[in-house]
Amino acid sequence: MTENDKYDILTDNISLMIDNACKMVAKAKEKQGNVKTVVYVDNEGNDAVAYVYDFSVYTWKSTDTFDKLARDYLGDASLGTIIAYFNEIAVESAVESGTKIKIPILTETPANQNNMIYAVPELQDNYGVDIAINDEGDFDIAGGDFGTVSGTDNLAQAIGLRLSTDRKNRIRLNAYGIKNTIGDPMAVKSYLTSSIEQTIEVDPRIKEVEEISYETKNGGDDIQIDVTYMDINGKTGSYKGEL
After folding, report:
1. How many Cα atoms are found within 13 Å in the side-chain-facing hemisphere of 189?
2. Which residue of 2, 116, 192, 227 is surrounded by the most CB atoms within 10 Å?
């Protein structure tokens, strides 16, 4: 067994350990559920339970009351005590102007369902959402904020990032990326194919790599690759780029 083979086995095992650790964290958080319960006292003085799926942040003004916020944001002024209990505030008059208040969201929406960490499995979006990278390799800006990429485009971007990053360039993720040394010139084709395939299949959203083709450019200094893969949702995707 060559040193390259030993290195491949070691880095593959590290990648598997990282992936399993991420899954364990996700499972632990998933057990918390999307829904939080808030026990409060209703207008009749009885204990009641509200189910909170998410929250927005609001800056308290001197003219505000919990009932007013409940009317404006929850559509019912009588739900003001839910906001108070959710923020663990017992005395309304003690809230100072400028205080950040969490406004609970009492209805389940796609925004709080499609979350890779917190959503229940049947509501998860397998592709996730990430910051979009433009053709120049910089963060994409949209409307004065970072642009995002989702769905199969997000997976394709993730594959491109793995294939354009040399291993050991990521802090604490030494197994991330593709190996930047080829080794024996006689084994270039098989080694390169294997390295590309391993790099892509590390992503848990990939079911299998279906086809890899490439051609050399600039006297062999650059390699143009064309990869076709199937993701865990059964959709076929592709990546084209240079190594």
Report:
1. 3
2. 227
**CA 30 to chain CA centroid, nearest Å:** 14
Share of the chain above pLDDT 90, in %: 18
Q: 4 and 167 in contact (C-beta within 8 Å)?
A: no
| SS3 per residue for the chain | CCHHHHHHHHHHHHHHHHHHHHHHHHHHHHHHCCCEEEEEECCCCCEEEEEECEEEEEECCCCCCHHHHHHHHHCCHHHHHHHHHHCCCCCHHHCCCCCEEEEEECCCCHHHHCCCCCCCHHHCCCCCEEECECCCCCECEECCEECEEEHHHHHHHHHHHHHCCECCCCCCCCCCCECCCCCCHHHHHHHHHHHHHHHHHCCCCEEEEEEEEEEEEHHHCEEEEEEEEEECCCCEEEEEEEC
Q: What is the mean pLDDT of residues 45-72?
A: 89
How many angstroms separate the CA atoms of 72 and 50, rounded? 18
What does pTM read for this prediction? 0.48
pLDDT > 70: percent of the chain? 75
Is the pLDDT assigned to residue 197 strictly greater than 60? Answer: yes
Residue 239: CA count within 13 A, CB half-sphere: 29
Contact yes or no for 157/149 (Cβ under 8 A): yes
206, two tokens: 């990939």
Say yes or no to pLDDT of 219 above 60: yes
Task: Provide the pLDDT for residue 117.
Answer: 42
Residue 201 corresponds to which tokens in the numbers above? 């299949």
CA distance 177 to 195: 10
